[in-house]
Amino acid sequence: MKKLSVAILGFGTVGQGVRDVLCNHQDRLKEIAGIPVEISTILIKHPEKHHTKAPHVRFTTDFQSVLDDPAIDVVFEAIVGKEPAYSYLRQCIIAGKHVITANKEMFQAHGQELKQLAAEYDVGIGFDATTAGGIPIIQTIQHLLQVNKINRVQAILNGTSNYILTDMRENGSTFDDALLKAQSLGYAESDPTNDIEGYDALYKLKILCELIFDEQPVWEHVKCVGISQISAKAIKQEAASGNRIKHIAEIALTEGAITANIAPKSVSAEHPLYAIEGVNNAIHMKTDIIGDLTLSGPGAGAFPTASAMVEDFCHIVNKHMKAEGKVTTIAYS
């Protein structure tokens, strides 16, 4: 039987999440594609550690074997860091393979180039998972807000920071204690610098800025402040007055100029991001037709990220692979 073959690059938390979603929802995917979806290859540094988790899948350390396999139609990239992720995706696009990435650090640096390359080679590129986890913000902006002009975005883009601030307020924890709890629950890495110092939110804000405004501010001049200096006392003082401290990333277009900043801010109960708690993310947009619009949901973790990647996969199947004649019945829209 004909199958739609995919590969996964990287098999950490996100890569395993993609594997699980693809394997556990075969009926839905077959309805969308008209043929079974098969994971043929997983690229990993240490395949001997994972072969029992997917016994019918070929594990390899050789990226070239993925690139040279003409049966692989779509590549899911779930590698940490700019390289080798960027080089791998670039080569996959040139080889005519559709690509989907969750790598915000790589995509904020190379996304524009990869999008242009994908257009040149007429392949699909999905990157919804790079920003706000399971919230379909990229596809919403690309496909559902084509007439509306977005003038301003305020967002909570990092679930780790939001969890820490929530725990400090609700449980009276110190910053260090809340961070340790976040690490024990798997919400924070052993090195949490990108999360707590605002760099992760900055990467995601850059991706949103390029998508919405098609240009960027001078990022070297943009203030980026994390949450590591927020004290339990400051949290308590704001709570006593009915306010909450949130780590907010913001971009706006004012009189033709783009402004941006990432910093902790005190917000009142009337603010659209006030009620966003725990590891959740949210994006609040001001548009010129429908007005204010807020999307919220899980911002981190294996399944929210994998969900976004597989939704991108479905969009690629519908938009690109139908025209290529590689799929038959399309139920997705």
Automatic annotation (TrEMBL):
Catalytic activity, EC: 1.1.1.3
Keyword Glycosyltransferase tagged: no
Annotated ranges, domain Aspartate/homoserine dehydrogenase NAD-binding: 10-123
Binding site for L-homoserine: E189
Record's keyword terms, sorted: Amino-acid biosynthesis, Methionine biosynthesis, NADP, Oxidoreductase, Sodium, Threonine biosynthesis
Active-site residue list: K204
Pathway in which the depicted protein is active: Amino-acid biosynthesis; L-methionine biosynthesis via de novo pathway; L-homoserine from L-aspartate: step 3/3; Amino-acid biosynthesis; L-threonine biosynthesis; L-threonine from L-aspartate: step 3/5
GO terms of biological process kind: methionine biosynthetic process; threonine biosynthetic process
GO molecular function, one term: homoserine dehydrogenase activity
Catalytic activity: L-homoserine + NADP(+) = L-aspartate 4-semialdehyde + NADPH + H(+)
Homoserine dehydrogenase catalytic domain: residues covered: 136-313
Binding of NADP(+), residues: G10, F11, G12, T13, V14, G15
EC primary class: oxidoreductase
Coiled coil (residue ranges): none
Residues the record lists as binding NADPH: K104
Family: Belongs to the homoserine dehydrogenase family.
Protein name: Homoserine dehydrogenase
